[in-house]
Amino acid sequence: MIILMEGLLWLLRFFTGACVFSFLNVVIYRLPRGESVVRGRSHCPDCGRILTPRELIPCISYLLQGRRCLGCREKISGRYFWVETAGGLFFVCCGLFFGCGTSGLLSLRGLWAFAYLGILMIVALIDWDTRIIYDRFQAGILLLGLAALWLFPEHTLTDRLIGAVVVALPMLLLALLIEGAFGGGDIKLMASSGFLLGWKAVAAAMFLGLLTGGGYAICLMSRKKLERGAQMAFGPFLAVGLSAALFYGDTIADWYLSLLF
Ligand SMILES: [Zn+2]
Q1: What does DSSP assign to residue 74?
Q2: What spacing in Å lies between the alpha carbon of 75 and ligand 1's midpoint?
Q3: Measured in angstroms, how far is the CA atom of residue 9 from the centroid of ligand 1?
Q4: What is the dihedral of CA 15, 16, 20, 21, to 10 degrees?
Q5: Burial grade of 40 (CB within 10 A; 0-12, 13-18, 19 or more)
């Protein structure tokens, strides 16, 4: 019985995360189009039909409808489903990693981490679509960084201030030397995230970002889909690195440093 209750609670946590990220899907779709994210009901992007409540259940509706709109039968982008699934998994991971707290759903540290992952998801996908990173999200990350001073006192202010420049400053210098090396949004993302994560984790995040972004670029070039010297959104790969570093950044950095010394 206790196992069943525990299982249901984890399912509830997954569903909560999926619901929040379902809303983030709306933000990611509407913000670059200049539409309001709170006004206007959810509609099919193909036929414009307002979606009914049974079409709005995160993860489940998409699968039950056979991945198609119930009105026009047009294919629904799988991205909505995967973003919702990621939200569910992130919520569960935050619970496992940062504790579920007395509320039963998520501790304060867990909520903080989940909020950061949510911002990273928005930044990554809007950058992927439009190559723009909005300043308001960097400001959000900075605010979370200030909250982290109190929530995670194990990372000192000095650690965070070094984190803000250790990756962002070399990026800025490279961008000044080589035109188009990094976008201003990427640099600000790493500065604000460095303050939030501390210097070790943000260095690990950069390493992971370069690894995944570089791997993807090589993949594209080998298939002749990316011309040499062409621009590619780097924000999504930085976001992948930062998301991983939120959980394992310090561990990765400590492991790397132990190899050196
Ligand atoms: Zn439709």
Answers
A1: P
A2: 8
A3: 34
A4: -40
A5: exposed
Task: Decide if 72 contacts 47 (C-beta within 8 A).
Answer: yes
Tokens standing for residue 217: 């670029």
CA distances from 196 to 50, 51, 66, 159, 251 (A): 39, 38, 41, 10, 16
For Cα atoms 124, 125, 127, give the angle at the middle one, nearest 5 degrees. 70
Question: In angstroms, what is the span from residue 133 Cα to ligand 1's centroid?
Answer: 29
Cα of 77 to ligand 1 centre, how many Å?
12
CB-CB contact of 89 with 14 (8 Å)? yes
pTM: 0.93
Distance from Cα 127 to the centre of ligand 1, integer Å = 26
Taking only the tens place, the pLDDT of each residue in 231-254 is: 788 999 999 999 999 999 889 988
CA distance 46 to 172: 41
| Interval between CA 62 and ligand 1 midpoint (Å) | 13
Domain boundaries, the chain: 1-106, 137-261
Q: How far is CA 254 from CA 201, 237, 258, in A?
A: 9, 22, 6
Tokens of 138: 């960097």
Distance CA 123, CA 137 (A): 7
Q: Helix 235-260 and helix 199-222: axis angle, to 10°?
A: 120
Beta strand residue intervals within the chain, DSSP E: none
Q: Tens of pLDDT along 200-234?
A: 999 999 999 999 999 998 888 888 776 666 678 89
